[in-house]
Amino acid sequence: MATLPATAQPGVRWTKSQVRYFLGQTIVYILVLMVVFAVVAPFIWMVISSISPQTELSAVPPHWFPDTPTLQRYQSLFSGTGEGQALPAGVAKFIHGLTSSMIVSLSTTLVCVVAGSMAAYALARLSIPGKNKFMVGILGSQMLPIVVIIIPLYLLMQQLKWMDTWRGLVTLYAGFMLPTVIWIMHSYFQTIPYDLEEAAMIDGCTRIESLVRVILPLSGPGLVAVSAFTFLSSWNEFFMALIFSGSLTKTITVVVTEFSSQFGTDYGLMATGGVIGSIPPLVLAFLLQRYIVAGLTAGAVKG
């Protein structure tokens, strides 16, 4: 909560500026708390749902905190037995979804970092005709909703026979992530003095060698930032995975929506799968938080 101004002591009448300052700070804190609650509350409810027995989960009014928490659903996803039912197919599907998400996310990250860094370096250092228009085009492509081009993409993937394949998902994800990677790395490369490359080339390095030995090591925070961004975006993507993946390549975001039993959809099991599926991106975000912030802000100011 906002603190009182230093000059506003008990028994001392506040000035209008002090009142405005205090009210402004209070409103800011309230808005921040509302945003934090809106972001954190769904995940907390998902965790609560995953450890709540089915009877408490469907109780009216709902139990915000379970009286008898259970880890039965977590056990069922790895042992194949649920609450009175066998789930061997569900377990295999869940493990395959995790594997598919990991393969697609890592492959997309590798493609975007390698291709995006080289493209960004060329745009930042080489004299390319029309590169300013190209950068504007890159920025404009990010404003195009995926639903607008989903039908042409579907027809194209059918013609290439890339439906329900990992290379198809990686190509689609990389195509949508590359503009952001290029834009971020282009801004980051511009903050690195060109004199360092000239010194390396005077010592005998080619332009590619100066990029690999000088520029990329100095661009560590930026590379970590775009790698984390690409991985998290690929891992969490749902719309394209739902349309372009099938039984062979379904990712975890699609798999968790398909948990059901003979009595209907098992929302508790869906919540459990969501909690497990959110662990890798959460761990990555916590471990690389400092590098992500540094990488995304370092290129904001040129100099």
Fold and architecture overview:
With 303 residues, this protein is mostly helical. The chain has a domain at 90-298: Orthogonal Bundle (MetI-like fold), CATH 1.10.3720.10. The chain starts with 15 loop residues before the first helix and ends in a 5-residue tail after the last helix. The chain is built from 14 helices and 2 strands.
List the helices and strands and how they pair.
Layout: H1 16-50, H2 54-57, H3 72-79, H4 88-125, H5 131-141, H6 150-160, H7 166-190, H8 194-202, H9 207-218, H10 220-236, H11 239-244, H12 252-255, E1 260-261, E2 264-265, H13 267-287, H14 289-298
Helix pairs in contact: 1-13, 3-4, 4-7, 4-10, 5-7, 7-10, 8-9, 10-14
What is the structure about, briefly put?
The protein is mostly helical and 303 residues long.
List keywords for this structure.
303 residues, mainly alpha, MetI-like fold, two-stranded antiparallel sheet, 14 helices, 2 strands, 1% strand, globular
Please summarize the sheet with the most strands.
2 strands, antiparallel
CATH class of the domain at 90-298: Mainly Alpha
Which series of helices and strands comes N to C?
HHHHHHHHHHHHEEHH
Do you know the CATH topology of the domain at 90-298? MetI-like fold
The class by helix and strand makeup works out as mainly alpha
The CATH superfamily of the domain at 90-298 turns out to be MetI-like
Question: Gap between N and C termini, in Å?
Answer: 38 Å
As an assembly, this protein is single chain
CATH architecture of the domain at 90-298: Orthogonal Bundle
The total of beta strands comes to 2
- Enumerate the spans where pLDDT stays under 50 for 5 or more consecutive residues: none
Strand content: under 5%
Strands side by side in the biggest sheet: 1-2
Number of helices: 14
As a whole number of angstroms, the C-alpha radius of gyration is: 25 Å
Q: Overall 3D geometry?
A: globular
- Roughly how much helix do the residues carry, as a percent range? 55-70%
Report the mean per-residue pLDDT as an integer. Answer: 82
